[in-house]
Amino acid sequence: MSNLESNFNDQFINKLHQAYLKRVGIYHVPNDELTRFSWTENKTVTIYAIKVFTAEPGYKFYTIFFATKNSDEKNKLIILDLTNNTEDPKFFRIDDGLPVKKLLWLNSHNLLNKSIGSNIITPSANFSYVKKVEEEGDFLFENWAQKWVDQEYDRTQEAEENSTLVEAFPDFPNTKQRFFIDRYHFKDMLESLNDSQFEDEFNQCLFAYENEKWFLCATGLGSCLEHLMLIILTNYDKNGFRNEKNRGIFHGFPKNPTAQDYVRLFTKNPIKITSRQATFINLLYMARNSVDHHNTGKTQKNLCDLLLDGISDMYNDYYSSSVLYKSTSKEDE
Questions:
Q1: What angle do CA 298, 39, 67 make, to 5 degrees?
Q2: Which helix (H) or strand (E) holds 299?
Q3: Stronger pLDDT, 55 or 174, i.e. the higher one
């Protein structure tokens, strides 16, 4: 990519992002509720501008814009030309004003990478008849940001005011993704743990969160919390911890442990959490058990947020010590 292209991409993204954040600002949403928006805080996106065929008189093509979630530290702009691939009546007979349906057609004909299709932020879908992306003016950014932000706000507001029924996960693009996890926030944790099973379990919870499957999300996060506690305890055991009776940390540990069994071990050496810390961990498990189909969407979401914060705290407070632990002498129980 040339410096000229790079500068244009940065300018395009910055103008759109500024318009997006400006629109978010008029809603005066508290910081702890910004998860309802896909491009706030340090979340990043990839913006796609795809030229496609149109039968609209006077035009040979028009551009579909949309955003996808990504886990990179930097926002990106990708421009594609699918004009020749879309000169198909089944495509151009779809109303140009329905970009999501157009994207569904592209996805079903394998013209979009699967990783793109599964990560599209549907409220971000928009279109323009301007011949060159480089010629887009401020009107596009302001209009695009307005529709994008307003749809995200309306959908999350609806979700908070109504109970959420658990149903089969829909496929793109019918999924109404209403909440957005800052996946980058957990990137360091997953990389440090380097545990494929935990990462798979945790990512499934994030998927459930983003699709409002609160019961599934809470249940899964509770399991992730237990798994993380097991990883921490296992690190101490592998690093040579033995009690005064020269027994390993898992001596007498049940084959099918409960959450209380993990908390009990955390109250002993070498971790030895306080009663207040134990109470907090127990509250997390209570939160997991409190999510059901009768709670309001807002209540269920808040409980899942609490569990996510709890997992983050567990990692930050206890994981590094377990990795760095070195056995020196037998420790009292």
A1: 115
A2: helix 297-314
A3: 55
242 alpha carbon, distance to own chain's centre:
39
> Sheet of 120-128: strands edge to edge?
76-81, 44-53, 61-70, 120-128
| Coil, strand or helix at 65 | strand
* pLDDT digit string, tens, across residues 154-213: 877 765 555 444 333 334 434 444 455 566 568 888 888 999 999 999 988 988 888 888
Burial group, residue 230, by CB count within 10 angstroms (0-12, 13-18, 19+)? middle
pLDDT attached to residue 125: 92
Report CA-CA distances (Å) from 11 to 125, 181, 255, 327.
20, 26, 57, 54
Torsion 88-90-95-96 (CA) sign:
negative
**Which residues sit opposite 126 in a β-bridge?**
65
Distance between CA atoms of 38 and 151, rounded to whole angstroms?
11
**C-alpha span between 43 and 77 (Å, rounded):** 15
Cβ atoms of residues 315 and 235 within 8 Å: no
Rounded to 5 degrees, what are φ and ψ at 154?
A: -60, -40
What does the DSSP assignment read for 144-201?
A: HHHHHHHHHHHHHHHHHHS-----PPPPTTT--------GGGGHHHHHHH--HHHHHH
**Mean pLDDT, rounded, for 323-330:** 77
Residue 316 has what DSSP assignment? I
pLDDT, mean over the chain:
84
> Angle, nearest 10°, between helix axes 297-314 and 275-290?
140
Give the N- to C-terminal CA distance of the chain in Å, as an integer.
61
Residue 180 in contact with residue 38, Cβ under 8 Å? yes
Per-residue tokens: 16: 């759109």
In angstroms, the CA 2 to CA 23 distance is: 32
* pTM of the entire predicted model: 0.57
Domain ranges of the chain: 3-161, 183-324
Q: In this structure, what token pair is assigned to residue 5? A: 């292209």
Per-residue pLDDT at 145 exceeds 90: yes
